[in-house]
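I would love for you to help me understand the pair of lines that follows before we discuss the fold together.
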Amino acid sequence: MTSSPISSIEDINAALQNYNPFALPPYVGSQEVWGKEFPDVTTLNAHASDAVFQAINQIRTGQYQRTSIAITAESGTGKTHIISRIRHRLQTEGGALFIYATEFSDLNNIKHGFQRTLGDSLGKIGSQGVTQWQELASAIANQAVKSIHPHAQTLLSKDLVQKLSRNELSKNRTLVNQLTEAFRKTKPNLKNPDIIRAILWTLADSEALYAVKWLSGDELAQYKANELCLPSINGQSFDVIQQILDLISDYYQLIICFDELESIEINNAGFTKSQVVAGLVKELFENLSKGVILTVMMPAIWINKIKQLPAGVHSKVSAYGNPIDLKYMNGDSIIELVALWLTEFYSARSLVPPHRLYPFTETQLKDLSSEEKPPVRKVLQWCRDNCKPTDIVIDGGDQLIIPKEDPVEQAFKKELTQEISNYLDDNYLLADAILFGFQTLINKTVERVKIEQITEKVKQRGGKDDYLNFKIIGKEDGKNVSIGVAVLQYASGRALGAGLKRLIDYETFGLTRGCLIRAKSKDKNISSHLYKTYIEPMIVQGGEFAELKEEEIRPLLAIRSVHKKCEIDYGFTEDEIINFITEKGAVYQLGASNTLLQEILSDPSYQVPKDVLESNPEVPDVSKYSESSELAEITELAVAVD
């Protein structure tokens, strides 16, 4: 076999000029965990990932039912690389479902945050080419079918999804009810059959989003709840979480992973994010029927935060034994890592370099570890800054120069690509992003409002509120203004009413006007009662209804994520972020150029929006299973899937 001829040095250098292989921020996050993973030197810190797989195998063989593992390492050493490696191997091998928890928008209600994370994680593609929810639903459906037709063939997940996605809603409703009832009879101790019904609905692509929303603890519009034969509110209950995890354990190995615990956020009781998560890990561990809980953190977090908690807590975070420490890179592992990155770069462009490390040399890379052992992130940053062709190409008398890219802009672009659809109902997360957007505008004038202060302490005694997220305090044409902002993505019901009530209670909250931020869609229409009681008075009093649009909130979420990770993960300062917003705000809809922020501050229109009024006819509630159906649909499944 002959090797490919080496490409011309001019072509190789031109490729390096057009794109630096190491340009992307060397930060591994959820995108790399769920999507394409970073090039991975599998021998690096294999002792950590091997320990997790050993625990999975020991649980699989019945040596014990559950355990928890803590991994500690300094920033940039490769903690999330390990998580990505574990996730992708599990996806390849199958037999396990993976939950990845990083974002908790409200530390005072972390169980709801975890329920959202559970819903989001199981909505990712698993090992069978369908979502993890659909894998679980397929296992439930097969058990239900076999309880009636013991010799029925086992139905593949893809086949079930294809069939239900072709069916009409009415036929699927009957089928889902039949499967739910059949499964319930196999589980006499089942607490909440509606959870089974919702999981089965994930098999129908057109209804999966609503089913996952309900399973995540969010409210459904009444018409959609009736269509799916579900109560509109599932509830934010640890019992719901436990039942879902127990169901997973019946069919699959379960791995729950907690990451990004370094945040300095605290809850109302004064506990940091890492400590609040540790308390959740303890409760999960004590109630988990089967599975592995993995928590990764910096050593200082373990020593100064987790170990300071009662032994009954920190011992549950690392029941497997002492935390597993990750190792720094040596010369050999640095060479392998860089070679992997460059091989992927050159292969994608059908180029063959003079040697696998070009434009670097082995000596250069080994020298990186001669004085100190660098973390993975530092190695990749060095490569980014030093990726220059060794042979200079002169084109028209100009020297080849690879432009240096703004690291903040690169980090922002990376965060901008994150999937946010599952977070568009998270009031706290959305409000936090909008609040940060306004914090970057303090002492600036936007829409004739000079912003002097942004505060979450909206109550008379300076306390936070569950519904009114923050106040914008400043001056408009020389007059004092205090604008109360509430992100209210609730479908309907008491929570929405409670939030709307605050927007017209100027005296209690010290407001001059209120601003409701809410999407306009069929699922967000407002009942006539709430409309007349709150929306009309709010607008008449000079309040604002600012429509939440994905294209306007996305850049705010992205820059807020960059800000949260700036020091530990990305390695730049808050001032650099502010400078980026100032320089590139008009390009990326940030700061004063963001349309949503402008709308919140703009002059009241005094026009009551008519397109938010509920007008959906209610579908008859057919949630009760009927024996008269003679199980026709479930029998059809047992016979064959087209």
